[in-house]
Amino acid sequence: MRGPSAPAPPPYDGAVTRPPRWPLVAVAALALLTRGWAYLDPRQLVAARELDDATMYSVAVQLVHGHLPYRDVLYLHPPGMPLAMTPLAWLARWTGDAWALAVGRVGTVLLGVVCTVLVGLLLRRRGTAAVLVGAGLYAVWSPVVRTERVALLEPVLSVCLLLALLVLQRTDGAAVAGRARSRLRPATTAPLVAGALTGVALTFKLWAGVTAVVLGLVVLATRGLRATGWFAGGLAGVLVVVVGPFVALAGTAVWRDTVTAQASRPATVDAFAFRLRRFSPLDGFASTAGTDAVLRVVALAVGVALVVTVVVGVARWSRGRADADRVEVTTWALLALAQTATVLVAPSFFYHYAAFPAPALALLAGAAGAACWSAVTRGERRRAGERGGTRAARWARSVAAGVGVAVLAVGAVSACRATRPAQPSNATVAAWAGAHRCVWGLASAVVRADAATPNAERGCDVPPDVYGEGVLAASRSGARVTGTVLDDNPAWTAEMLRQLATSDAAFLPLPEDGRWLRGDSERAFEEQFVHVATADPFELWERRGP
Predict the structure, then answer these.
(1) Strand pairing partners for 439?
(2) Residue 6: pLDDT over 50
(3) Which residue among 40, 226, 343, 384 has the highest number of C-beta atoms inside a 10 angstrom radius?
(4) How far apart are the C-alpha atoms of 164 and 167, rounded to whole Å?
């Protein structure tokens, strides 16, 4: 009971105390630093950093020149990325292909910063510690940083997932207590938007189907059958609008490229430890037997924690005892388990695959960081007799904060170290390619030489995915294709010669990077072309005279 001299509490004016904004600004700046570090030298924006983004850009170039993916051009994913890159393909008429793709890479860097901020926004109501741990981890995570430096598919999947989770969070009744509710309705328009965002991700890469299943189950368990119908409707609507026209024009070729051809590609032979190592935030440093052992222990602990979180969360759902925080954490754990399993058991593996489950894992790290910070401060206050300002409490918080800052700093150094060696300007190869009518080679070389658009304009038979076309031809012949080299396969040699018929110049990777022409294919190539120069990381070849 209040004494007579105690002042009355001030009247509630409806104001809500919002978390500070500086943590979001800090993690955004950190994400921009780690992703933009590789481009402090602007020439590296046009370097041959990645094959996949150049291949997808080349498909977009073919599209704006009237060649339809699947029907006319091999493309192994849904059509989202070529459609998104069509503005870059138009831009290339003024800037050249290399700088057009560079614009896409800058956009992906900014998209990575947006993803980092979205992780922070999802964790914001859990406190500053959650934002700094979760979003900070995402900002410096080496495989994520490497992926978000080039125009790959995984960053799009990440931003769509994070936006969908934010929509669901902001329309959860318990989650929005104390502030204005979203205009979206929890059982209708919110799941509709979340489903549409998941559908957008699915138009870029089929792996988003894993995300769709998990989110669909979560919506069903937490919001009911009606909301699940709205979620499925939003997803299906996007697929019909984006993928439908390609199915109508290309027919079964869409299935052939995105499913059959994908399944026929050779599996990469790598150890489980190699895949696990690519998940490490310290992947930028050299690995040792000791670090690999520690990584296995950490991975086992994380796996057990994920399973326990899911089991406990589902049990609480079934009993109707789960609050908004537990539902959210269980959702993140389900996503992390399903997405990580997808990556680890996939027939092939590349560094950017580890970015697929990264958003869910970063969110869980943030939630765990908030819980640990709360436990530290609560324990110190209890021992100090509820005097939160004591020296012991301040010391404990300072140590915890210092450790966190040190870990993020080491992670940032690792992310900045994980860059490719600097390459010279593309001016030399662009001038060389400009002196020829048609230039054949991997898309990363053709785009760097500003030759993708001229090839399309001149009707050159140079496919965006030279290697993929070779694998498909070899697979159709019935021969088994293994590894990354098409060895002595007559079908591949015939396909290569067909493509080269219109070309008077060609690029080949340097031998130390893995020669993918061997035996009959190499002999057939060298009968028609002669090596004239080397421009790191490619050899330049010209057609022999008559």
Answers:
(1) 505
(2) no
(3) 343
(4) 5
Q: Which residues are paired to 518 by β-bridges?
A: 487
Give 436's contacts (C-beta < 8 A, 6+ positions apart): 504, 505, 542
Q: Please state, in angstroms and rounded to a whole number, the distance separating the CA atoms of residues 532 and 528.
A: 13
Amino acid identity at 250 = A
The DSSP line for 431-471 is HHHHTSS-EES-HHHHHHTT-HHHHHHTT----S-HHHHHH
Q: Are 113 and 385 in contact (CB under 8 A)?
A: no
Q: Tell me the pTM.
A: 0.89
pLDDT of residue 153: 95
- Which residues on adjacent β-strands are paired with residue 539? 508, 534
Residue with tokens 């936006």: 163
Q: pLDDT tens digits for 313-338?
A: 888 777 766 677 888 999 999 999 99
Q: Which residue has the tokens 């010391």?
A: 395
Instruction: Find where tokens 């104390």 sit.
Output: 178
CA-to-CA dists, residue 535 to 59, 422, 540, angstroms: 25, 13, 7
Residue boundaries of the structural domains of the chain = 22-417, 427-543
Q: What digits encode the pLDDT tens for the residues 70-122?
A: 999 999 999 999 999 999 999 999 999 999 999 999 999 999 999 999 999 99
Amino acid, res. 18 = R
From 162-176, 243-257, 258-272, 332-346, the region with the lowest mean pLDDT: 258-272
Specify burial of residue 502 (Cβ count, 10 A radius: 0-12, 13-18, 19+). middle
Q: Higher pLDDT residue, 200 or 409?
A: 200
Which residue type occupies 7? P
Cβ(495)–Cβ(526) under 8 Å? Answer: no
Name beta bridge partners: 530: 542
